[in-house]
């Protein structure tokens, strides 16, 4: 299956009974600071606190009844796991979530609260994948990958679709990038609505596998992530790399210090709670302001599941 704009529209209809239509916020003071006009799509108000519910919900409800009966399984640093647990709950099926040691406590608590069976593994991608594959074999559960599953990618694109339909024509769209599901789906959605729009991705310097992949022209998978953005530590996916190349996405790196400063600005100016993985978009706009000067910019704030006892300032 080659993902297309029609898949985003289908996902939007499928998840409509379950997902929130999240608000779009603006700030004159942030516009002045950035030198552009920013429409913030606030996915921190999404169910389970992040955009991830869109993709998880689409994947769960796209399953045939016979497959859904065996439940679903995934591995996640937190947000996708909580989203899949909640999506499975909406359909009344079992969910298994493999979580690495050291995951954010608030995100692990959410996974438990939504009724999933929690499995803790070593904090490596290999350990996560092996545990999820073993559970799938033992239970018959369907593996719903956090960012390479096509139904997940299509679901994530619905946030950009909503943003563009509310905000009107934009010159640029920027979203965070970790594994690449959100930016991949967003690129398909945005180009489907406004073909001339520029698509950009914000990435931590300490987990810059997407930036390096686009720079070198080959997918880079050997970077060991070191960033406060726990939701952006995933290895950049193969299908996601292909989508970035197809849609000409430009990846903009930011430091953790810039991300923390941007996160604080959002708390102060927009009066909302976001996590570091969301703040990278404003950090990128402020660091690379020449790319955005005078433009109408859509920025997806991906989630708000932050540990309030350990804020980065």
Provide a descriptive summary of the structure in words.
- By secondary structure, the protein is of the alpha/beta class.
- The chain folds into 2 domains: 5-50 and 149-301, Rossmann fold; 53-143, 3-Layer(aba) Sandwich (Rossmann fold).
- It contains 13 helices and 10 strands.
- It has helices at 5-15, 28-34, 52-62, 65-68, 79-91, 105-113, 125-139, 150-167, 181-193, 209-216, 238-246, 256-269, 276-287; strands at 24-25, 37-42, 72-75, 95-100, 117-121, 142-143, 172-176, 198-204, 250-254, 296-301.
- The strands form 2 sheets. It has a 6-stranded mixed β-sheet, with helices on both faces. A 4-stranded parallel β-sheet has the order 5-4-3-6, sandwiched between helices.
- Helix 6 links the parallel strand 4 and strand 5 (117-121).
- Helix 1 crosses helix 8 and helix 9 (181-193) packs parallel to helix 11 (238-246).
- The model has no long low-confidence stretch (mean pLDDT 94).
